[in-house]
Fold:
Amino acid sequence: MKRVGNLYQKIISLENLYQADQKARKGKKKQYGVQQHDRNQEENLKALHVMLRDKTFTTSSYKVFTIYEPKEREIYGLPYYPDRIVHHAVMNYLEPIFTANFTADTYACIKTRGIGKALRNLKKALTDKAHTTYCLKLDIRKFYPSIDHTVLKGQLRRKIKDPDLLDLLDDIIGSVPAGIPIGNYLSQYFSNFYLTGFDHWLKEKLKVKYYFRYADDIVIMHWSKEYLHQLRVLITKYLEENLKLQVKPNYQVFPVAARGIDFVGYVFFHTYILMRKSIKKNFGRAVHKRKPRQVLAAYYGWAKHCNSKNLLRKLLENEKI
Structure:
């Protein structure tokens, strides 16, 4: 793996910090932190450049809060200035480097991929009925909190040889005692990068053809149920020994035709796709409570990618989207 260097001075340049500021604020211009920063934007960016140049920047304290939908999770928030600007400044240069190492089979938080591409590719794979008879579905126990700092730092050092940038990344990684914080802009890339070696191992060494990963949600299809059970054992061993991760005990191996594959908000069968039951219920509640049109439009956009004509007719017969 070729290592990249000479990035830090580019990352901390005033030009890049300004670009990072513009990216970080998209959709957030009315937030208090952005408005506070804008009162002294030029001075703040110059001061941030000096902090980074002089190596006095350290990650700020987090505000931690809990969300309960779609499941209970602790979210870590950092101030807009300086932290979120720094994260975007770093990713202006690291994003193409990370993305170039990802396999085509991972979809979360990657430009030009996401849920839409995962849906299309899984739908296409299922047209090969003879080789997608069974599905192995699993995910990783407490994925973000379980990411090992030493392992992640070692992975970064195998790709990056700029000591100043590595020091900055070490500070961000070490800003929580364990794992990586859900809510950090950098965390979504760190998590994908953490599993990249695993992706390549499955695709290139084990020659797994039908493999899909969205964050830590993993789907593998094959014609042999026995093969998938054996593969699950190998995956469990690899994750434990190489990444210090554990597979949740609720893994499943099942016939696709009988149950469908619950993935990225849909349930996939060989010849049709349904909306996930929980999303369908939330859609129904939104209609019943007469939520704003933009909320209903979002659900409609979700529904139009699956076989939901009857559902839409029933729910929206009196609505105009």
